[in-house]
Amino acid sequence: MPARIANPLKQHLIHYFNRKRYYEYHFGRRPITPAHEQYIRQAAISYGWQIPIKFNDYIEDYLW
Question: Burial code of 1-14, b = ≥16 C-beta within 10 A, e = fewer?
């Protein structure tokens, strides 16, 4: 992703999630919910990124 898109997108996501949560998602310490994945995809499109974004992992878990 070119810096002209990546930098403003990163600032937007930090503002939306907050800095701590953004970096937890970025470094994989916290899984991203499907709703947040969709939000990130839409934000990237709004900043001009046309290639579909793929996320690295899929985790299936239970709510106890």
Answer: eeeeeeeebeeebe
d(CA 60, CA 43): 25
pLDDT in tens, the chain (64 residues): 899 999 999 999 999 999 999 999 999 898 888 899 999 999 999 999 999 888 877 667 777 7
Measured between alpha carbons, how far is residue 63 from residues 28, 60 in Å?
A: 20, 10
pTM of the model: 0.80
Task: Classify 60 as helix, strand or coil.
Answer: coil
